[in-house]
Design brief:
It is built from 18 helices and no strands. The chain is mainly α and 396 residues long. The chain has one domain. α11 packs antiparallel against α15. The protein is globular, with a radius of gyration of 23 Å. The chain starts with a helix and ends in a 22-residue tail after the last helix.
């Protein structure tokens, strides 16, 4: 099949499974961050922390962390294939700037400072008002200061990948690289480059998303981004996932069981360039890929259908992603003071965040083009008011 034929085929078929996976991944992010309020571990402390941690919540955070962001970047790479199908390179850069960079700047200046302020306020030694704090937000870069981009790191990473990798993506578009994926086991072996990245880079760069000194994440997520792009370039990639779904499911379950068992028994090796830790990180790289493969395969099997709910959620997902953490941190700041159990607080924080975020999207963003622009959405095209014609008019 020629490149032109493959491009036409892909343009004619909407991948609703990717749309559903993106929506569900954003939804899961709310519960992931709600659980992080009760988490203690090497991934770092969340903005607001409950006095009592939870073993179950910690396990949930570790489980989701293994595959969630890799899936996000892979889906974004898939979206890039479709975006470049009907845009020139210049149009693509303009679209990425409007879709990613403008919401990133807006969110960093407007949404993230409140999270940092509430973190400082929760320590009980900070007593300034928010407006007194705001100029201090720009004093130094975390961890040596207050400035950070919080959960919006995903946007600046994705924007950087989209621009830096564009020549490679255009080059790959003109190649027929799919035949090798048809060989048995090849789609599973795509885990090896990911394992190599984790094993060689993660011992030094554990994961602080500042872009300029985070090479393990940069290389890992860039490769997932490219993988997503390739998966949409030819139907044979999807067929390979379907054929290997059974073994991918088995490997994912076995590897995650081993991973959680190592955590449960406190057998995870200390971070260092040691044989044990390097092998552990290589294992994590494979584990993540097997889970992403399983999720992609199940999505292809069960989620490739359209609905009114998907049409609504597909647009709402991006503003929900931008808003959710600021709302969640604000709600958690008050809820952790309750004299209640962990599960009561968790469900209150997550449920209230979900409804508050959707309400803000409906009331302040969805119908207003100025807000849609700041949140990376296309403008609403309003129908012009028609002027009724008068019967028997004297005008020709």
């Amino acid at each position: 099949m020629s490149t032109a034929d493959r491009t036409t085929q892909e343009l004619q078929s909407r991948r609703y499974d990717f749309d559903w996976l993106r929506v569900l991944a954003v939804l899961l992010l709310i519960y992931f961050h709600a659980a992080a309020v009760f988490y203690r571990g090497e991934l770092g402390d969340f903005y607001i922390q409950n006095a009592r941690s939870s073993h179950f919540m910690t396990g949930f955070v570790l489980f989701v962390h293994q595959w969630h962001m890799p899936l996000f970047f892979l889906i974004s790479g898939a979206g890039t294939w479709f975006a470049l199908s009907h845009r020139s390179a210049k149009q693509y850069v303009q679209e990425r700037t409007q879709r990613l960079f403008i919401p990133f700047v807006f969110g960093t200046l407007v949404l993230v400072p409140l999270q940092v302020y509430l973190r400082l306020l929760s320590h009980l030694t900070y007593d300034r008002s928010y407006w007194q704090f705001y100029p201090e937000f720009f004093n130094g870069v975390r961890p040596y200061g207050n400035f950070e981009w919080g959960h919006l790191w995903f946007l600046i990473y994705l924007f950087t990948f989209s621009i830096v990798a564009l020549p490679l993506l255009k080059y790959l578009r003109n190649l027929d690289i799919a035949p090798w994926i048809e060989k048995p086991g090849t789609v599973l072996l795509m885990a090896l480059p990911l394992a190599l990245i984790e094993g060689s880079l993660r011992p030094h760069w554990i994961g602080f998303q500042n872009l300029y000194d985070d090479w393990a994440n940069v290389c890992l997520y860039l490769l997932y981004f490219i993988y997503g792009y390739l998966l949409c370039s030819d139907a044979r990639f999807g067929s390979a996932i379907d054929k290997h779904l059974g073994i991918a499911n088995l490997l994912a379950i076995v590897c995650m069981t081993v991973f959680l068992s190592l955590w449960q028994t406190d057998l995870i090796p200390d971070r260092a360039y040691s044989v044990n830790y390097v092998l552990y990180q290589c294992f994590r790289g494979c584990n993540s890929w097997f889970w992403v493969l399983m999720i992609l395969g199940l999505g292809r099997k069960f989620l490739n259908t359209n609905s009114r709910l998907l049409s609504y959620a597909h647009e709402a997902a991006y503003p929900v992603y931008l808003l959710h953490q600021t709302i969640l941190v604000t709600i958690a700041f008050y809820v952790i003071r309750w004299n209640a159990g962990v599960m009561t607080k968790f469900w209150t924080i997550s449920t209230a965040t979900l409804f508050a975020t959707i309400a803000l999207y409906e009331l302040l963003i969805r119908r207003f083009n100025s807000a849609r622009f700041l949140f990376g959405l296309k403008p609403v095209m309003r129908q012009p008011t028609s002027i009724p014609t008068t019967p028997n008019s004297s005008h020709p």
